[in-house]
């Protein structure tokens, strides 16, 4: 099996898994929101309609970017990076405060989350810089400019505050640095420094500190800081092996906060049981396998780094969300990719998958190697020839030169 066929196999797996998760997410978003949305004579399909619109926009963008030459993406990096930085600053000034955070900018009826766009912009910037300059060997080389830009964006994320986006961004960049070939000692030192700064940021904020303490023993304050974790565990535990049945969740009816966004896995576990939860976990494992395989096989440095970054972004965000819902990590308020309700996250991640699909199978190279000869009636490709002319012409010209030289000697 040649590289093109292998790339097509991974491309099909990525498409299948992504679309399956998006379709599954639409079903679960409707299941998690229909009851609460119907209260007060509301529309039970309200959340589903909005998520479906975002899904259609995201799929259209995915298809478009899958056909776009990924080698031209570095040209858009300065504009995308500057625009996302301005939007992240604007959200701190102009965005309304919702649940103690400022994360959404609204343009009329349409709202978007700048931090989601900023993650993709930072990914493309890091890939372009590492592909051009090579892997940093020391912390000093890593700091300028990659570390400086990363710290600036992570600082803007933390001011919103948005710890989950900061964590997934650092996971994404760590994977890209490892693929780029950064020495283990440098990568370990940078990771340790990030952990120290992260621990300090968590301890300085009372609500973050409360989340950590409640994670250690959520049952100690089951009606306070540990409420969400306890309700998620109850939902997953009550599902058993096969679940209570689609649409039969009890936790989603004003028991589990954010049931359709951050905690949607708890509803999946309650309604579809262990089988449904394993389907989700298996789907993200298949995505990670296909994505990292694409990254390892890609020969273009920029494409390799982008593929690794996108795969780490999706699978890392999924791992953080799954661990938090299952009680294996503190809650960070991060959605489950492709499944949770959220327009900006869905559109940006589908756009990123489109870029990954383009890297998986680049059909332009074989197309250039099969240029048809329009002078032939059967359209067969012409063979490679020297710039001096055809193969048949070269011997004749050599013979003519010998005859001319002989006539001059005579």
What's the SSE blueprint?
Blueprint: H1 3-38, H2 46-66, H3 73-94, E1 105-107, E2 110-112, H4 114-133, H5 139-159, H6 163-180, H7 184-204, H8 206-216, H9 227-239, H10 264-297, H11 301-325, H12 343-360, H13 364-369, H14 393-409
Antiparallel strand pairs: 1-2
Helix pairs in contact: 1-2, 1-10, 1-12, 2-12, 3-4, 3-5, 4-5, 4-6, 4-11, 4-12, 5-6, 6-7, 6-11, 7-8, 9-10, 10-11, 11-12
Task: Write up what this structure looks like.
The protein has 410 residues and is an all-alpha fold. The chain has one domain (3-367). Helix content is 69%, strand content 1%. It is built from 14 helices and 2 strands; from the N terminus they run αααββααααααααααα. The chain has helices at 3-38, 46-66, 73-94, 114-133, 139-159, 163-180, 184-204, 206-216, 227-239, 264-297, 301-325, 343-360, 364-369, 393-409, and strands at 105-107, 110-112. Strands 1-2 form a two-stranded antiparallel ribbon. Helix 2 (46-66) packs parallel to helix 12 (343-360), helix 6 packs antiparallel against helix 11 and helix 11 runs antiparallel to helix 12. Mean pLDDT is 82; it is low at 363-398.
The description of the largest β-sheet is:
2 strands, antiparallel
What's the shape?
A: globular
> Helical proportion?
55-70%
Main sheet: which strands, in order across?
A: 1-2
DSSP strand tally: 2
SSE sequence, one letter per element: HHHEEHHHHHHHHHHH
Number of helices: 14
From the structure above, extract its key features.
410 residues, mainly alpha
């Amino acid at each position: 099996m040649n590289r093109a066929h292998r790339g097509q196999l991974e491309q099909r797996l990525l498409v299948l898994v992504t679309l399956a998760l998006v379709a599954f997410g639409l079903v679960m978003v409707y299941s998690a929101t229909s009851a609460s949305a119907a209260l007060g004579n509301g529309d039970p399909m309200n959340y589903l309609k909005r998520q479906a619109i975002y899904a259609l926009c995201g799929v259209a963008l995915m298809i478009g970017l899958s056909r776009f030459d990924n080698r031209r993406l570095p040209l858009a990096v300065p504009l995308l990076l500057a625009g996302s930085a301005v939007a992240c600053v604007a959200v701190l000034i102009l965005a309304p405060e919702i649940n103690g955070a400022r994360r959404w900018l609204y343009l009329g009826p349409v709202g978007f989350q700048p931090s989601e766009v900023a993650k993709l912009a930072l990914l493309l910037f890091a890939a372009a810089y590492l592909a051009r300059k090579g892997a940093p060997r020391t912390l000093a080389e890593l700091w300028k400019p990659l570390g400086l830009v990363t710290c600036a964006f992570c600082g803007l994320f933390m001011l919103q505050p948005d710890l989950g986006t900061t964590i997934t961004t650092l996971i994404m960049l760590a994977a890209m640095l490892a693929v780029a070939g950064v020495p283990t000692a440098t990568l370990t030192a940078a990771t340790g420094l990030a952990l120290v700064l992260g621990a300090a940021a968590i301890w300085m904020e009372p609500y973050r500190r409360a989340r950590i303490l409640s994670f250690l023993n959520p049952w100690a304050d089951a009606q306070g800081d540990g409420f969400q974790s306890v309700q998620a565990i109850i939902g997953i535990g009550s599902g058993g092996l096969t679940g209570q049945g689609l649409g039969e969740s009890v936790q989603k009816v004003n028991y589990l906060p954010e049931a359709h966004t951050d905690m949607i896995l708890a509803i999946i576990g309650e309604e579809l049981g262990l089988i449904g939860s394993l389907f989700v976990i298996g789907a993200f494992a298949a995505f990670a396998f296909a994505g990292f395989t694409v990254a390892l096989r890609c020969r273009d440095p920029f494409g390799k780094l982008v593929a690794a970054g996108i795969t780490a972004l999706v699978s890392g965000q999924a791992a953080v969300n799954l661990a938090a819902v299952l009680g294996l990590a503190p809650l960070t308020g991060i959605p489950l990719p492709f499944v949770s309700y959220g327009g900006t996250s869905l559109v940006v991640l589908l756009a990123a998958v489109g870029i990954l699909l383009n890297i998986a199978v680049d059909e332009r190279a074989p197309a250039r190697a099969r240029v048809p000869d329009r002078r032939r009636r059967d359209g067969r490709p012409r063979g490679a020839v020297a710039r001096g002319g055809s193969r048949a012409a070269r011997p004749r010209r050599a013979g003519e030169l010998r005859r001319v030289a002989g006539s001059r000697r005579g």
